[in-house]
Amino acid sequence: MLRRGLLRAGQMIALSTLLGGTASAQDSILADRETIRQLAQQIRQLQEKVAALEAKQGSAPSTTADTSSVPASGDASASASQLASFQEAHEVRGIRWRGFGEVNYKVLNQRQPELATFGFVPGSAGNFYTGDFDLFLTSKISEKASVLAEVIIGEGDAQRFDIELARALLKYDYNDHLRLSIGRYHTAIGYYNTAFHSGKWLQTTVDRPLVMEFAADGGLLPTQALGLSVTGQIPSGKLGLNYIAEYGSSDTVRPDLDDGTVVDENNGNHVNLGLFLHPESVPGLQIGGSYYHDRISDFLKGPSVRLAQTVINGHLVYAAHSFEILNEAFLIRNAYEQGGPISNMPAFYSQFSRRFGKVRPFFRYQYVNTNIKSSYHSDVLLRHGPSFGARYDFNESIAFKTQLDHTIRKGKPDLDGLQMQVSFAF
Amino acid sequence: MFLAGLSLACALNCVAAPAHTVAVAVSPRNSVSNVTLGDLRRIFSGEKRTWQDGTRIKLFSRAPGTTERTALLKLLGKSEMEYKQFWTAKVFQGDAETEPIVLPSNGMQREALTAYPGAIILVESADVKPGMRVLKVDGKLPDNETYPLHR
Fold first, then answer.
1. pTM of the model
2. Which residues contact A53 (CB under 8 A, 6 or more apart)?
3. Do A322 and B79 count as a contact with CB atoms less than 8 A apart?
């Protein structure tokens, strides 16, 4: 009876300690951590006392004890200690932090040097670079409010590093149908940008498809913005319909792929509306689309020359039962408001992969076709080609990827490349 | 009165279930009595985060290798590694504050239901205890032959 009582008390204490760190407000987190240590110690002492009493009485453990569902106190205290260590390692005054990192090696057969991003040296026979080192922080302010921030230390030319605030959001989850965020975010144009963000470890391939590459690294879309985002579920039964609406300023600055000259699109305020389905009948399937509209400037033609930029996306994604199938298509439309040429620039990528144990081979085909007469993206022109490779997961936190690319470029020699990457989450 | 209440609780919870069926249990304070398999997937994949009355759903999980964990992975169509990576991504996407808390015993799961009105757990049917309010899944309790949640 004594043993059962102690076990139950230990169980309650251990549970309280396990849950305390996640449920309490910020102010109590440090106190909780200390409490966890103390309570774990108390459980050990109780366990020792029970063992001593049993030895003294020479009795077998009570057969009435509910041993099927009650843990050994040692397990509970060990678990509490493990959680305390984890919390201690990942929390600083109520801030939870995680990180992502990568080390890359890249070789291109480029005879005509192109853009160097992430520290890759254009025209080189091949070199190492670290890419992005990503620190991710969250903090719970109240039951429904929280803060999320993502700080990236990115490698530039000659191993110089700069710091970028990729995301900084104050979030408020009213319910499943209304989740508000305000701050700097990754725009929800399509699927890729909000599924993988900046964490290379999260994605199967070494790099992002060119159309979805971050604008600062040569991508075509306004991938980051500052403003308000609202998302949630729409009551739709088994259809699983969700919406997202964004209003903000995406000050896109994009380097020219050929010479690295930075071009500022001088965006206005954008509106982005998206709908996507998660049908209950096919778990893992997402079908959706988005409509993005903004006004950008063409200062080369005059101080007040403006273009209406529209980006339409459709996507079909399946990620379950070891498969990952990503398909996204885009139409980027730039039209001068005062009349003039209209550029319709299509792009798509399809990616297929399947996990076999720790190995996930993948294949991707991407296509981008921009207009030479367009004020923006005229450096890209027609580019398309396959990539294939494999990802090997050493464990749930470290992955090695290798990828071969073949890119056909209009007016330039084809480009072949080999990329290798070790990426990790911590 | 007390005995009648106990009998009712037992009728609801102490079901004679086939071996290795996994029950879905919530806090006795939760008014929900039935979930669909689709709801369950949404809940355990962090898509559905609140109950109908607005209470936040609190996810708990058993450790890898347990019957409950095996059933959870089967429900989500993921391997153990994919499950862990899925939750890392979920947190990074800002769609979850943390991965579900792993509890080392069913006794602690029971206490979690006591402590959190919005808690939901998976528990092997044979280990269901008073204090665990078992939900029907697609209208079926674990003793039903066509109950969908198995190891």
1. 0.79
2. A2, A3
3. yes
